[in-house]
Amino acid sequence: TLRFLNCSTPYTVMGKDKHFLVCNNVIDREVGLAIPKNKVIAELGAGDGRIVERLLEKGAKEVWAIETDPIMLNVLNTKFKHKPVKIIDKDIREVVLDCDGVVCNIP
């Protein structure tokens, strides 16, 4: 059964509304479904990197953080500078996903 919780934080950039997942139980469930241990996992719309961080904690070999928001790209580049994270500044329709799995949180 799905419960509707206030699990996102709103943010607006360049006239577009963004919502960030902040519920740890939902993040854990999404990451658990990806079974990331020793895999390359892509996250579509990485935002501030909460899911990326959890994927790394659960043993992902590498995470591809796909994001187009320039503010969030700066956050990701700073947060994961020395981590096995490939930050991709492209629209998902332009990315070839040659990885083991994909995580995406649709608002």
How large is the count of helical segments? 3
> What is the CA-CA span between the terminal residues?
18 Å
Q: Please state the structural category.
A: alpha/beta
Main sheet, how many strands, which sense, barrel?
4 strands, parallel
Q: What is the global morphology? A: globular
Task: Note the run of SSEs as H and E.
Answer: EEHEHEHEE
Q: Helical amount among residues, as a percent range?
A: 25-40%
Strand fraction: 25-35%
Radius of gyration: 13 Å
Enumerate the spans where pLDDT stays under 50 for 5 or more consecutive residues: 1-5
How many strand segments? Answer: 6
Summarize the structure.
With 107 residues, the protein is α/β, with parallel strands linked by helices. It has helices at 24-34, 50-57, 70-79, and strands at 8-13, 16-21, 40-44, 62-66, 85-88, 101-104.
